[in-house]
Each structure stands twice: as C-alpha cells, then as structure tokens.
Amino acid sequence: MNTSFAKASNPVCRSDSAAGCAVVLATAARSSSLPRRHTLRVVLFDGEERSLAGSRAWVAGLAVEERRRVLALVNLDLVGWNAAPSGAVLLHPVRISGALPLPPAWLAHAALRAGRAVEAPLAVASTRFSPLAQLIARAFQPTLVSDAEAALAGGIPALTLSEADLFVAYPQHHGAGDDGGRLLEPRLDLWTLRLGAIVRRLDSLA
Predict the structure, then answer these.
(1) CB–CB of 77/164 below 8 Å?
(2) Dihedral over Cα of 153, 73, 43, 17: its sign
C-alpha cells in the first residue's frame, strides 16, 4: 500500500495526500491481526511532485529478485474530499522506452471485485463516464504523475485509486483551500474499508 507523504507541518495538502496516509495507516492497523499469506508493507513516498523522486529511488533500490517478489503496489491519490459516492481505478498508461503499458488487468479486476464485496464499488477510469474515460485512456494515452508510475516502470504491478479522474477534478488541488476542513470522515472510512478489502483480495491470490 502506498501514498505520497504530506508533511504534518504543511497547512494544506490534506487530500493530496495526508488523507491517503491516514487511510493507508488505518488499513494497516486493521489488517495487522489478520492471517495473511503475503507480507503487507506500507510505503510512504516523498517527492511525488518532484518527478516521483521518492518512489523512483525506492524502486531503484530494489534488486531484480526483490521486484519480482512484489505482488502489487496499490497507490492512493486525492481521497476523502468528494461527498458523492466516488472512487475510480485509474488507467493512465506509463511511458517506458516508447511503450505505454497500463496497470495490469488482473490487478484492476481484483480491486473492482474487492470494492463490490464490501458494497463500496470502484469504477474503471472514471466514476461518471467510465466507458468514455477508458476510450480516452487507450486512444490518447494521457499520463498521470503518480507513484504507481515508478513501480510500473520498474516492472512492479501497480495502480492508482482516486476520487479525481479525467472528468472529476479536485477544486483545491495544490491550493490553499486543501485543508482539513474539506476532508469527510465517512469518505475516509469508506476508503479504509475498500483498501482493506483489496488487501484481502490480493492476499488470496497465488
């Protein structure tokens, strides 16, 4: 599980991504007493806005065999602010030596099934206009600055979950209004429920 790290002293950046840190840590705490087949790691990266400096350094520090042992990286970005029932598995490709791989289908499918299992469904590419967003992702290949990009570039299966997508923008992104007052506790609880379900779903895979 992963999100970018927002300094506690920063008066803004609560949704991007202090909220993600809170959800990831809460999920880890709730999952700590459950039996698992796989090791669950929480990784909080700094430097997402500086060319993914933290996540690229983490991936570079892993030996080839260590990367192969990582089942998946699930990244959270911009969560906890949208009052509407929302949440999407983003399908932004990653440019690697001319190729544009997407998050693997099996990983997206696992996330979608996990969300449905706890009655907190996720959409594909966009909550509001999923088919159109999927067409745009494949036809125009818009990229996304996300720590999942660094993992995919290093051969690690990864995807990003978010309340923002091609058609739903966070109005206070990188603005002074991104403070704690905009975070919604029920939304954070919902994301913790979702992420826990995804962890359990992935752990059940071989």
Answers:
(1) yes
(2) positive
- Tens digits of per-residue pLDDT, 61-101? 999 999 999 999 999 988 887 666 578 888 765 666 566 67
pLDDT top residue among 36 and 138: 36
Query: Which long-range contacts (C-beta less than 8 Å, at least 24 apart) are formed by 43-46?
Result: 43/1, 43/2, 43/73, 44/2, 44/3, 44/4, 44/5, 45/2, 45/3, 45/4, 45/5, 45/147, 46/4, 46/5
Task: Report residue 30 as tokens.
Answer: 């709730």
Cα separation, 52 vs 58, whole angstroms: 10
Q: β-strand 73-77 against 88-90: which pairing, if any?
A: unpaired
Residue with tokens 């509407």: 84
Phi-psi category of 13—alpha, beta or left, where left has phi over 0 and alpha has psi -120 to 50?
left
Q: CA 113 to CA 17: how far, in whole Å? A: 25
The pTM of the full predicted model, rounded to 2 decimals, is: 0.87
Number of residues that this document lists for the chain = 206
